[in-house]
Amino acid sequence: MCLSNLSSLRLLDISDNEFEGPLPSSIVYALKSLAYVSLASNHFQGSLSFPMLANHSNLQIFELSSYNQQHINVETENPPFTPSFQLKIFKVVNCTLNEPTHTLPTFLYHQHDLRMLHIGHAKMAGKFPTWLLVNNSRLNYFNVSHNLLSGPLEFNATSRFPNMDTFDVSSNLIGGEIPQSMGANFPNLITLNMSSSLFRGSFPASFGGMTELNNLDMSNNNLSGSIPPEFGKNNGNLRILKISDNNLHGPFLPPKSNFSNLFSLHLANNHFNGNLSNGIWNSRQLRMLDLSNNHLSGEIPSWIERFHNLTFLILSKNSLQGLIPLGFCKLAELSYLDLSHNNLSGTLPNCLNMSSLRYLFLQDNQFSGPIPTSLAKSHDLLALDLTKNKFSGQIPKWINSLLNLRILLLRENKLGGTITSNLCHLRNISMLDLSRNSLFGSIPSCLKDIAFGKLKLSNGMGLGIGIVRIDWVSRATEFAYDPNTNEFVEGYDNEMPFAWYEDQEANFMSKYRYESYKGSILNFMSGLDLSCNNLTGDIPREIGNLSGLLSLNLSKNHLTGPIPKTFSNLSQIESLDLSHNMLSGQIPSELQQAMRVTLFFVDLHCIKIAHQLQQKNHKKGWRVPLMGKKLNSETLLFGVL
Hints:
Leucine-rich repeat, LRR (right-handed beta-alpha superhelix); 49 strands; disordered C terminus
C-alpha cells in the first residue's frame, strides 16, 4: 500500500507475473499522475470502478486482464462520469464487464485518440459499435472478440479506415451479411478475423483489394456461394487463409489466384467440388493444407511435389481416387498426413520419405499390399491408422522400430499370421486395435509390457491437444515513455501471436459401438481390441496386469480355458467383451470387487460358464447372479451373460 504515496508516478506496469489476491485498485485510484497502467496477466481477484479514474487526466494507456474471467469485475457505468483523459490504449480482456447488463463502456463516446481497443472475453453485449471506429480515426487495432455483440455490421460504402491494420470481431452474435464494401472500407488491413459470428451471404469480392492482408479468418460461419475470382489476384501478401466450416462451393480457390506467400490454407467442411485445382500453383511456401470434408474428386495431382515445405496435408473425407502419385516422394517435411475416407487405392510408393512423420491416417480407403516398409524409418510416429483397407500379409517385424507410437489401429484389413512379439516393444501404446483380420495363434503374454494408459504425459507426447499449431501475428502499436516530454510516443509494431489448434480424433470400439475420442480425452483413453480373428489358446494371465486398460475386447475368436483370476487387477476397466469364444469354468470370485466399482459393460455371451446359470422364469429369461451376490447400487452394469 506504500505505493499509494508515489504521487508523481507516471508508469505502473506489473503485468505478466504471478500476483494474486485483491486487485490493487485502491493504489491505482490514489496515483492521479498515472499515464500508463498495466495490471494484465496475473491472478488478481476483485473489482475495479472506472469512474474512480475520472480525474486521472494524464491517463493514456490502461490494460487489465485475468487468467480467470470469474475473478475480476470491471464497472464503467455506475456512477456515470465524464472522463478527463484521452486514452491511446484500452485493453480489458477476460474480465466480467458491467454486470449484469454487460453494456459497452459509455465513456468511450468521449474518446477520440484511441490507437488500440481490445475488449475480449468480457461478455459484452449490445449493438456493434461502428461509432467507435468513426470517432477514432487513428485506431489501428480493434478487437472485440468473444463477446455477445449483435449486428448487423454496417459501413457506409464511402467510409475509409486507412489506419486500421487489425480488425477482430470473431465469436460474437453479429449475423447478417458481410458488407460488400468492406475491402474498400479497410484497404490496409493486415489481420482480419470474422470467424464464428453467424455471418451469412456471399464472400465479398472487395476482399481482393486488401493488398496488405496477411491473415484472414472467416471460418465457422454460414457463408455461401463461391469464392469470387477477384480474390487472389492482388493478395500476394496473404500468409494464412481460413474459411473452413461454411457452405461455400465451386473451386476451392479461384483458378488464377496468386497467393505466392501463402503457407497455411484451411478450407475444411465446405462443399467445394471438382478436382484439386491449380489455384494454389504459385503457393510454393505452403506448409499447411486442409481441404477435408468437401466434395473434391479425381486424382491427387503430381504437381503436389512443388510444395517441398508441406508439413501438414489433410485431404480426408472427399471422393479422391487413384494412386498416391510419386510426387509425394519429394515431400520430405511431412509431419501430419491424413488421406482417410476417400477411395484411394494401390500401395504407398516405396520412395516415400517418412522420417519426419508423426501422424498418418489412411483409414477407409482401398489401399492394398503389405504395410509399407517406408514407415520403418518413421521413428517419431505417434499415431498410425490403417483401418478399413485391404492391407495384407503379416504385421511386419520392423514395427518394433516405432518406439514412440501411441495409437496403432489396423482394424478390418486382410492381415494374417500371428501377433508378432515385436509389438510388445511398443511400450508407449495406449490404443491397439487389430480386430477384424485373419490373425491366428495365441495371444502373446508379453503384451503386458505395453503401457495402455499408464504412460505419464510429462514427456510432452500427448496426442489430443496441440497436434496442429499454426501461429499467426497481428500488429499493435507499442508506446515508449519519453521522460523529457512526459509523453508516450509510438514505437515499433509489436507482434501479437494467435494460435490455432486442431484436435486429433480416433475411433475405437467400446461397449458394442465405435466411439470417437477427440482432443484431450485421447490422452486418457486406453484400449486393446483383438476381436474377430482366429486366435486360439488360453487367455494369458498376464493380460490381467494391464491395470490401465479402459476397454478390452477379445470376442469372436477361438479362445479356450478359464477367465484368468488376474482380471481382478483390471482396476480401470469400463468395457470387457469376452463373448463368442470357447471359454469355460467359473467366473472368478476375484472379479467381484472390480465389477462392483468400475465395470460399466461386460459381455460373456456364448461362454460355457459352469454352475452360474439359474433359470428363474422362461418368460423373463435368464437371471445370472455374479459370484452368488447381488450387485450393489454402485455398479453400472449392462450386457448379456
